[in-house]
Amino acid sequence: MTSRLSVTIGLRYTFFRGASISLVNMIAILGLGLSVGILFIVLAVINGFDREFRERILGVLPHIEYLGSSPFENNKKQILELEGLPNIEGIAPIIRGGGLASVPDATKGVLILGIDARRYKEVSDVSIYTKGKLPSQAGGFEVALGVGVSLALNVGIGDTINLTLPKTTTTPWGLISRQKRFSVVGIVDSQSMLDSRSVYIQIEDAQAFFQLKNHIHGYQLKLEDIFLAEETAEYGLNLLDDPSLYSRPWTMSYGALYEAIRTQKSMMFILLSLLIGVAAFNLVSTLVMSVDQREGEVAIFRTMGADNAFLVRVFLSLTIVIAILGISLGLLLGWIIALMLPHMYEWTAVDLMSEYFVRYLPVEILGQDIALIISISFLLCLLSAIYPSIKVIGQEPAEVLSHE
Questions:
Q1: What sign has the CA pseudo-torsion 127, 133, 139, 142?
Q2: CB atoms within 10 A of CB 167
Q3: pLDDT in tens, 221-258
Q4: Is 233 a member of any domain?
Q5: pTM for this structure?
C-alpha cells in the first residue's frame, strides 16, 4: 500500500512539476484562455443585439398591424373582437402617413403617427424613452419627435415645427400642400433606428390634419408571445372577416433581421469553437512534450508497479489541470472585457454602430452560453489527451531506461 502511494505521489509530482515550470505549458494555457475569451466576448455581444432587438425594437414597434386598404371608421366592435383573441396583450388605433417636418432652415422626411397616448402604452414602450411627454391633448397640436428628427431640425421641447403632407388642396392660388404648425412637447430617444424618422401626434389632431373625420388607418397590437405573430395575425383576419383589411406582423418587416442575428450566433459559435480546437491541438503537442521530457521517470515508476490505467489517470489529471486553468483564464478575461466593451465604445468618438438598429454596443452574458463554452472546451481538451495517453502507455520501460 505504501509503495503504491509513493508511486502515485511521485508520478503526479513529476508531471505537475513539469507543467508548472514549462514555458510550453504556460503558452498552451494562454492559448486556450484567449480562444475561450474570444468566444465568450463574441457571444456576449451577439446576445446583446438579440436582447435589444426583442426588448427595445419590438418593445417600441407593434407586433402586429391591421391596416385598411383605405381609411375606415374606428370600430369599437372590431377592437373588442381583437381583444378577445388569445395571446393579445394590448390594442390601439393609429393613423400613419409620410410627411415632412421642417423649420425655416431645415427639412426632414418623417413618418407621422397619430396615437391615443393612453391606449398606446398598451402596445408600445415609446413613453418609457420619451423625455417630456407624448401628445395627449386633443386640439393642442402637440408633437413628440424622435431624437434623430430633433437633431436634424435642431429643435427641442418648447420649439415649434411645421408638418407637411404630400396631399395637396386646390385653392384659387393653385395647389397647396397641407401643413400645420405643431409644438414640440417630447423627444423620443430609444437609441434605435426608429428615432431617426418617427414623430407622434395626438390621434384626434391627426384625424383633423389628415382630414379623416372619425376614420383611422388601422390597429396596432402587442402580443404576449412575439413568436406567434404570424398565426395570431392570420387568426385575427379570419375573425374580422373584412376583405379591406390586411395584417402585417413584425416578422414581415424585421423577421429576416432577427433570423440573421440568430443564425450569426450559431455560425460564430461553430467557427470560434474551431479556434478552441486549434488551442486544444496545441495542447496535444504540449502534452506529448511532457511525456517525452518525463519518459525516464515514468519508466522508473512503471518498474515500481504503476499499471497502464494508473498512468492514464495521472496523465489525464495533468490535462484537466491545464484545461481548468486555461478555461478559467479565458472566462475571466472574457467577462472583464465584455463588461468594459460598452463603456469603451462610449469613450470612442467613432460612430461604429450607425449602420445598425441600435446606436450603442449591447452586451449580455448568459449562463447557458458559459456552460456550453465550458463543456465544449473541456471536451476538446480531453480529446487532445488521447494520443499522448496512448504514447505514454506504449513506452517500454526497459528500452527507455537503456537510453538513460
A1: negative
A2: 12
A3: 999 988 889 999 998 888 888 888 899 999 887 887 78
A4: no
A5: 0.73
Pair (92, 47) in one structural domain:
no
Residues 165, 37 share a domain: no
Among residues 383, 299, 395, the alpha carbon closest in space to that of 11 is found at 299
Strands 106-115, 198-202: pairing is: parallel
Give the orientation angle of helix 367-384 with respect to helix 250-293, to 10 degrees.
Answer: 30
Can you give the pLDDT at residue 300? 61
pLDDT band at 201 (very low <50, low <70, confident <90, very high): very high
Task: Give residue 112's domain range.
Answer: 88-223
| Domains held by the chain: number | 2
Q: Residue 192 gets which letter from DSSP? A: B
Question: Could you tell me if residue 228 is inside a domain?
Answer: no
219, 288: one domain? no
Q: Is residue 243 part of a domain?
A: no
Angle between helices 250-293 and 2-21 (to 10 degrees): 120
Q: How many other CB atoms sit within 10 Å of the CB of residue 362?
A: 23
* Co-location of 159 and 213 in the same domain: yes
Are both 38 and 105 inside the same structural domain?
no
Give the type of residue at 148. Answer: G
Helix (H) or strand (E) holding 59: helix 58-60
Q: Are residues 49 and 101 in the same domain?
A: no
Residue 112 to residue 73: CA distance in whole angstroms:
19
CA distance 61 to 124: 6
**pLDDT per residue as tens digits for the range 153-184:** 999 999 999 999 887 666 565 566 788 999 99
User: What one-character-per-residue DSSP string does 347-370 give?
Assistant: H----TTTTSSBSS------HHHH
Name, in order, each residue with C-beta under 8 angstroms of 258's C-beta and a sequence gap of 6 or more.
53, 251
Residue 28 has pLDDT above 50, yes or no: yes
- In angstroms, the CA 96 to CA 59 distance is 18
Q: Let me know if residue 68 belongs to a domain.
A: no
Closest CA to 121 of 149, 79, 86, 91: 91
